[in-house]
Specification:
The chain is of the alpha/beta class and 386 residues long. The chain has a single domain, classed as 3-Layer(aba) Sandwich (Rossmann fold), CATH 3.40.50.1820. Helix content is 24%, strand content 19%. It has eight helices and 14 strands. Strands 1-2-14-13-12-11-9-10-8-3 form a ten-stranded mixed sheet, with helices on both faces. It has a two-stranded antiparallel sheet with strand order 4-7. It has a two-stranded antiparallel ribbon with strand order 5-6. Strand 11, helix 5 and strand 12 form a beta-alpha-beta unit. Helix 3 crosses helix 5 and helix 6 runs parallel beside helix 7.
Length: 386
């Protein structure tokens, strides 16, 4: 990691262009990739799975938001009512700005690969990947609730794989509008940050999300949050208990990585199909198994940290999606193991196993996300009314 840090060039992120949420997007369509074969369904009662509280067969049923543990939902799902705009509920605003990598301090330049790597014959836990530097722009989308009071510190949620410029995902904004109005969560800002592009080993997104260190949390702290505060006259809380982070796939592992390495910054985490597998690159001998090491070593061998973690996985989630066959690339097994070690160490966690769901948990997401957000914010003081 010291070599990686020393390789990063200096600069300052100042490229800010606030745009309406409905701005046009001239980006050409990306050709569709060939679909992977559908992974096999893994039974919820197979050896090694937690003992689930069963809510299956009840469409729309979610795990209680005031208890920890392991829950089974599906196979049919109903979108939560919180996804819809409700009459009489104050609506927050959604704004966007752009960050140019050439003006960043960390992750400048970005990296990309032309072809997928090959397994290192001297170390089957990693890949040999040829990369080249790239410049890129990332979009930061900010939801600001109607209840924010000028000058008052506000809690916030950081999400990964944020939407592109001109195409903000309003689902999260609607959910937060309704949860805040019902006083089920505090009035919070949501900061949705897109990645630097690509995926996995050899791409910028993989470097940002799969690296087992506090570097990406530092990037957000020193380069993204100051711009959010400056652009929108916000005062984001410094209290780590008032900061949450959320993501899907590698964005989910990134969310936990941020809290694990920087619990002084983040203590509430939501992951959907978290990539708790061996996907870190370049290889780091201090964490040779990448995020698989969370459940194989790091959590079991460390004193429990003040992290509150909500997780979900689909029963048809990913299994060995690339050339590595290291027995550390089963997303279902990884999340099952996470639940087991979290329970053994006494963490506050909730784990939702989604029947009839693949990577990213598909239709289950629209049903369970509001309750996940309510669960993860339990214990934080509700915002005083103005």
């Amino acid at each position: 990691m010291k070599q990686l840090r020393n390789a990063l060039l200096l600069g300052l992120t100042l490229s800010v262009a606030v745009t309406p949420a409905v701005a046009a997007d001239s980006t050409p369509p990306v050709p569709r990739k060939a679909e992977r074969p559908q992974p096999p369904t893994r039974p919820f009662d197979a050896p090694g799975t937690p003992k689930f509280t069963r809510l299956d067969g009840m469409p729309g049923a979610n795990a209680p938001t005031d208890v920890d543990g392991d829950f089974l939902v599906g196979p049919d799902y109903l979108p939560a009512p919180e996804l819809k705009v409700q009459e009489g509920v104050p609506q927050g605003k959604v704004v966007q700005f752009s960050m140019d990598s050439k003006e960043c301090k960390l992750f400048n330049p970005g990296i990309a690969r032309d072809v997928f790597g090959t397994v290192d014959p001297n170390n089957p836990k990693t890949l040999i990947v040829d990369t080249h530097p790239v410049d890129y722009k990332r979009t930061v989308t900010v939801y600001i609730p109607a209840q924010v009071v000028a000058g008052r510190e506000v809690p916030f949620l950081v999400t990964h794989d944020g939407p592109g410029m001109g195409h903000p995902d309003m689902n999260l904004a609607h959910i937060l509008d309704n949860l805040i109005a019902e006083r089920r969560v505090p009035a919070m800002v949501a900061i949705m940050i897109s990645s630097g592009g690509g995926d996995a080993q050899g791409h910028e997104r993989g470097r940002e999300y799969d690296t087992m260190s506090g570097l990406y949390a530092e990037f957000i702290e020193t380069e993204v949050l100051p711009l959010v505060e400056k652009n929108y006259a916000l005062k984001l809380t410094k209290n780590p208990d008032g900061r949450a982070t959320m993501g899907t796939s590698s964005g989910g592992s990134a969310a936990l990585i941020m809290a694990w390495y920087r619990p002084d910054l983040y203590r509430r985490v939501v992951t959907l199909s978290g990539t708790f597998v061996n996907q870190q690159w370049p290889f780091n001998p201090e964490t040779p198994d990448g995020a698989w090491g969370f459940h194989s070593k790091l959590i079991p061998e460390a004193q429990a940290k003040p992290i509150r973690l909500w997780m979900s996985v689909g029963d048809r989630d990913l299994l060995n999606p690339n050339v590595m066959r290291d027995d550390m690339h089963d997303w279902v097994d990884a999340n099952n193991r996470m639940a087991s070690v979290l329970k053994a160490k006494g963490y506050h966690y909730q784990y939702v196993y989604c029947l009839n769901a693949g990577h990213g948990i598909g239709n289950a997401r629209a049903q369970i996300l509001p309750s996940a957000l309510e669960w993860v914010w339990k214990g934080y003081p509700l915002t005083p009314t103005p």
